[in-house]
Write a structure and sequence with these properties.
Blueprint: E1 5-8, E2 14-17, E3 26-29, E4 32-38, E5 43-48, E6 53-57, E7 65-67, E8 88-92, E9 97-102, E10 105-110
Antiparallel strand pairs: 1-2, 2-3, 4-5, 5-6, 6-7, 8-9, 9-10
């Protein structure tokens, strides 16, 4: 079953749950700044407070895979360097848009990883 909800608490811990609203939360990891869920791929992505990125597939008990930058394909595909100095990132998979907040400015791109 795919994760349905995830939050980062004030202490930087990620909690996720699947199932109905009464399902228990699973303590996923610590040191998080942001968490994103992708229902179409069952991925959970966490940007840590140190700027690193880890992602897992296959539900709440999958294995975390350390990541950097942006890449197409599965979690083990090659990386394509995108942008440095990112403070926060948002991905809208249906539209192919990626928004990056950095140094007080917002940058957005559309299309594949090679788009402008």
């Amino acid at each position: 079953m795919r994760p349905r909800r995830a939050v980062v608490d004030n202490g930087g811990k990620v909690f996720a749950k699947q199932g109905n609203l009464y399902a228990g939360s699973v303590d996923e990891l610590s040191g998080a700044a942001d968490v994103e869920l992708d229902a179409s791929t069952a991925r959970v992505a966490v940007v840590r407070t140190d700027g690193s990125l880890t992602v897992k597939e296959g539900g709440l008990y999958g294995t975390w895979v350390e990541q950097t930058s942006v890449k197409p394909g599965n979690l083990y595909a090659g990386w394509i360097n995108q942008l440095s100095g990112a403070a926060k990132i948002e991905v809208d998979a249906p539209t192919g848009r990626v928004g990056v907040l950095r140094d007080g400015s917002l940058t957005v791109k559309e299309g594949d990883p090679y788009g402008a």
